[in-house]
Every structure is written in C-alpha cells, then in structure tokens.
Recover the amino acids of this structure.
C-alpha cells in the first residue's frame, strides 16, 4: 500500500480539518505526531478522536504528546478517546 504523510494528504483540501478521527491499529503515533511537527498550530484540528485500543504498540504516547499541545480529554470509551483543544491562541 502506498502511503504519504498525513500533513501532505491534508494539503489537498481547501481548509484544515476541524476534527480528526484516527484509527490505524497501533500506528497512530507514526501518523499523527509527525503531522503536528509539519503543520502550523493555526491548522491543528480543534477535536481529535483517537483509537487507544492498541496504545501499547505506540513508540511515543500520543495522548501525552497531545496533552502537551493543549488538548484535554473530553471523553473516552474502551477503544477511543476524544480530545479537544479549547483555545489555540488565535
């Protein structure tokens, strides 16, 4: 399967996403964290739903990284966590 970075894929849309759902079976850290390094803060989504069922496979803890970027946990289930960024400084 051909893959491209998430930041490159989202350059093909007119506006940055307001929300993002990511569920890639334990590879969330490999797709999501580089996105935040490549994209300006003004384009970060306000809400993220991230699958945490396979969190044990992450090389980096996505949740802790997102908390450090200003996201807070608004809810979760056995398999997913909803994170929201209330202020972006814009």
């Amino acid at each position: 399967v051909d893959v491209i970075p998430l930041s490159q894929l989202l350059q093909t849309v007119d506006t940055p996403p307001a929300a993002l759902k990511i569920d890639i079976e334990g590879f969330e850290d490999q797709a999501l964290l580089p996105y935040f390094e490549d994209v300006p803060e003004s384009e970060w989504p306000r809400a993220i739903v991230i699958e945490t069922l396979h969190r044990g496979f992450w090389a980096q803890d996505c949740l802790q990284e997102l908390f450090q970027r200003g996201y807070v946990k608004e809810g979760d289930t056995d398999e997913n966590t909803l994170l929201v960024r209330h202020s972006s400084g814009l």
About this structure: The chain has a mean pLDDT of 88. The beta strands are 19-22, 47-51, 72-76, 80-84. The first strand starts at residue 19 and ends at 22. The CA atoms of residues 26 and 57 lie 5 Å apart.
